[in-house]
Design goal:
By secondary structure, this protein is of the alpha+beta class. The chain has two helices and seven strands. It holds the Pfam family Spore-coat_CotZ.
Length: 160
C-alpha cells in the first residue's frame, strides 16, 4: 500500500465510523479526538447527550483545507438560492467506493456566504443546511473532527 492509500484509508475509516455513529443516534433516537467525539455523540459515558453530529474538516495532501459549496433551493419552486460555502461538514453517507455525501454546516448568524478562510467562518451554533454534495474520500489526506454537537433545530429530524 502506498503512502497516499494509507492516508486516505485513515480518512475513509474515520468518516465511515462517524457516519455509522450518527446513523445509530437516529435509529435509537483526547477531548477533541475522533474517538472522543464519537463517544460524545453516542453517549457512551453517561447516557444520551442530545448530540447528532460530529463536524469534520478535510485536508488534501498538501495540508490545504477543503471548502465545499452548494446551492439551496430558492424561495419559490424551481428557483435557486445563493451559493454557500463551508469548511465544516456533517457526514450523511459513506459508500463502498469510498465516496461520501457531506452536508454543509453553517452558523445561521454567519452573513459571509463564502468565507475566504476557515478563520473567517463562524463556528458558534453550526447548523445543518440541507445543502449536500458528494466527495471522493481518497482525495483527502487528513481529517479534523470537532466535538459532537446538535446540528438540527429541535423537533426537526435529520434525513439520511
Amino acid at each position: 500500500m502506498s503512502n497516499g492509500e494509507n492516508r486516505s484509508s485513515v480518512v475513509v475509516d474515520i468518516v465511515r465510523e462517524i457516519a455509522n455513529a450518527q446513523k445509530d443516534i437516529h435509529s435509537e433516537c483526547c477531548a477533541t479526538s475522533a474517538e472522543q467525539s464519537i463517544n460524545d455523540l453516542l453517549g457512551n459515558f453517561g447516557g444520551s447527550t442530545g448530540f447528532d453530529t460530529v463536524p469534520i474538516c478535510l485536508y488534501n495532501d498538501l495540508g490545504a483545507i477543503f471548502r465545499g459549496y452548494g446551492v439551496a433551493p430558492g424561495a419559490t419552486p424551481g428557483t435557486l438560492g445563493p451559493v454557500a460555502g463551508s469548511y465544516y461538514f456533517r457526514v450523511k453517507a459513506v459508500y463502498d467506493d469510498n465516496s461520501a455525501v457531506l452536508e454543509l454546516l453553517r452558523s445561521p448568524a454567519d452573513l459571509i456566504l463564502i468565507p475566504d478562510g476557515i478563520a473567517e467562518q463562524q463556528v458558534t451554533n453550526l447548523t445543518a443546511t440541507g445543502i449536500c454534495f458528494t466527495v471522493d474520500l481518497n482525495a483527502f489526506a487528513h481529517i479534523t473532527t470537532l466535538p459532537a454537537i446538535s446540528a438540527f433545530v429541535t423537533g426537526t429530524p435529520p434525513t439520511n
